[in-house]
What does this fold into?
Amino acid sequence: MDKWRSLLSQINFTGAEYPTFTDTEIEEFEQKTGIILPQDCKDYCKVFGNGMFSELYDINCLNAKMAEECKDDLLISWNMERDSLTKLINRFGISKEEEEELTQVNQIIELITRSFVFASKEEQFFLWDLDSYNNLNRSYKIWTVELELPYFYCIGSDFFEFARDFCLGLNRHKYDYMHTSMRPEIYEDLVGFERFPKEYGYD
It folds into this structure.
């Protein structure tokens, strides 16, 4: 957990009056959901707790209810997109471009269906692909998708790097390959972490 403590000491931090998560709460979440949390995420929960990076990235690793609500919103949006596209294809026939678009939409829906939504920024969501668990480094592949934009990216599997490089933007240029609206959005004077009460992110 030393790397998390070191990171916290280097950034603006508010909400120190609120407690972080305990091993018992983490274990209860895993037993309740059947989801094995990445080891880095467990350490994060015990050092950072529940909160938001840079007033943008809302991290709710232990909130299964919120994760399901976000997942439902994503699935509703992308199933509507698939239905709309399918109607057009049935009416006018399918072009190569539409075939590729439908394939991409189906891939997004399949990804969302097998994932756990652990973070969000407005209409952008961050997911663990639960089928990708790696026993060696105890982590999942991290993906990001939006409610409407037809782009989805795997942004690694290291939760610490996700927090440091993406949410805090300390190595944000490594994500320049992404669509501009989905790259790390950083305002230098807001870089930091605000801890919230545990009740906001735990059920």
User: Anything to note?
Assistant: Residues 2-200 form a domain with the SMI1/KNR4-like fold (CATH 3.40.1580.10). The radius of gyration is 18 Å. Helices lie at 2-9, 23-33, 39-47, 64-92, 96-113, 159-167. Residues 64-92 form the longest helix (29 residues).
